[in-house]
Write a structure and sequence with these properties.
7 helices, mainly alpha, 81% helix
Length: 234
């Protein structure tokens, strides 16, 4: 008797339960989206902070009245600028690596779920499958597996991570050259002659040129990776 009452109550409220289930699922997807937006905002703040540090170093150097022609001071200023620029490259490389890992992991999870649900639905056919939850979860998992399969290509996560890390290593190499000049490994300052000081100036100019060429942050987005011709149900 009690079981019969419970069954009738359940059947009476089935539409409400389905609505709640759908709302919870959609809210979860919305939460994931909001979290990704918050992560992007935090990334922008981090990058802005490092660029502002570079600006401060440049302005302090321009406004300094002492040792304007001191090559060691110039090299130290370049090193400080490089340190902040490479911090941005490393930060972006880390972010895109995390995105690559997250997208790939979620793609695998939802692909497995989609595969299992597809097997269950194919046994009866879509029209003959009366279980609302199976059909709803299939649509959600199919959507998520497709989304997380596309996102790594749209945001070029692997390429962006690799290029930012490459730029980071180029900055590190530049810092090693600066370290060598500051330590006077080639003896330019020790000889302290016009020819040797001219050679030092040329090396400093070369470092400046490489610094200017390497100021880049890779953030490639390729919307052409989203296919508009796929028709999976035909």
């Amino acid at each position: 008797m009690k079981l019969s009452i419970f069954k009738r109550a359940f059947q009476r409220d089935i539409n409400l339960i389905r609505l709640i289930f759908a709302m919870i699922t959609i809210s979860t997807i919305g939460l994931i989206y909001k979290t990704s937006i918050d992560i992007y905002a935090d990334s922008a703040k981090e990058l802005k902070s490092n660029y502002q540090k570079c600006d401060s170093i440049i302005n302090a150097s321009l406004n300094s009245s002492n040792d304007r022609n001191d090559p060691i001071k110039t090299l130290k200023d370049y090193n400080s600028i490089i340190q902040n620029l490479k911090a941005n490259n490393l930060y972006m490389a880390e972010k895109f690596s995390k995105y690559e890992f997250a997208f790939s992991t979620l793609f695998c999870i939802f692909s497995v779920i989609t595969g299992i649900l597809t097997f269950l639905i194919l046994k009866k056919g879509w029209d003959n499958t009366s279980n609302f939850y199976v059909k709803f979860l299939f649509l959600v998992s199919f959507f998520c597996s497709t989304l997380f399969g596309i996102l790594p290509h749209v945001f070029s996560t692997e390429e962006n991570a690799s290029n930012n890390l490459k730029n980071y290593h180029e900055f590190t190499s530049l810092q090693l050259d600066i370290k060598s000049l500051i330590n006077d490994d080639k003896g330019y300052l020790k000889r302290n002659k016009k020819q040797s000081l001219d050679s030092l100036s040329k090396e400093i100019l070369n470092i400046k040129k490489q610094l200017q060429e390497n100021i880049r942050l890779t953030y490639k987005i390729d919307l052409t990776k989203v296919s508009t011709s796929n028709k999976p149900f035909e």
